[in-house]
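Most newcomers find our protein records easier to grasp once they have seen one. Read left to right, the backbone structure tokens trace the chain's path through space. Once this layout is familiar, the rest of the handout is easier to follow. The record below serves as our worked example for the rest of this section:


***
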Amino acid sequence: MKNHLQGSRNAAPWVSRRAVLGGLCAASAFPSVSLAHRIALPEKFSPQLVNTGRRDWVPGSVHVVPDDFYLYFMLKGGMAIRYGVGVGRKGLYEAGVFTVARKAKWPWWRPTDAMIKREPHKYARYKNGLKGGPNNPLGARALYLYNDSGHDTYLRIHGTNEPQTIGSAVSNGCARLTNEHVSDLYDRVAIGARVHLYPKGASV
């Protein structure tokens, strides 16, 4: 299966009138962010329409394959929109199956107590939280992942003000996309969608 997913790189690039118009709308809504953080990603991390071959991956679900740094938003018939992501660094990535229980645009953010304890020099100053905006680590959009007991896991799929980290394992456990890409994903993912974060080193 892993080889099949990697082989999908030859699929037609994800380019559509909707995408172009959506990108223009996002830029006009918050032009300073779109311009300030725009970088040239490797082509493989640009959103693409791919055939995963996975009929068991339900349309509307999200799948993060950490070793490849890809996130798949599933369509019908095994087709998916594939995005490049950054994932949690060693010891902080958490695999599992979760539910999107909440979504937010330009979300408020507070580091977890564990983050503050682990790196007080970096996070203690944000103990009272940080309002949404271009300097917020959650970026333009956030999807909040809850467990099957209905509790917030503090895992997020979110944007980033460090787009150069896409394709690397540097986060505190969350999956991150560029602000442009997470804005597109945000509009596609419904509340209640299932999110699968696969273990590192696993055959997917």
About this structure: Residues 2-197 form a domain with the L,D-transpeptidase catalytic domain-like fold (CATH 2.40.440.10). The mean pLDDT is 83. The helical segments are 2-7, 17-29, 31-36, 113-118, 120-123, 179-188.
